[in-house]
Amino acid sequence: MNVPANLKYSNDHEWCRIEGDVAVIGITDFAQSQLGDIVFVDVPTVGETLAAGEVFGSIEAVKTVSDAFLPVGGEVLEFNAAVDADPSIVNKDAYGEGWLVKVRMSDPADYEKLLSPADYEKLIG
Question: pTM to 2 decimals?
Fold first, then answer.
């Protein structure tokens, strides 16, 4: 399983990368492999401010629908238009082109509470 060392992770299988005061968030390679072929991603929360752990959208695969949780609190600034147009990008490139949302963090300390790559690898076994 691919677990990049430059990211932090949530117990809910989201990854987080910081760019200034903005967090770029997606689902992990493990999560996309468990979901299977992703056919639709819905993010109705752009423009809303949510707390860490709140649902920001849903991911629909061929056989299931899963909630997507914010690993850090803040204002949802943007939903990835490329994923909106072609959700299978998440399966192909979960850590790159398949990012889901950008969030202006309300509390940078949320990021520090996330799992390190080593701790995430322990979580997924």
Answer: 0.96
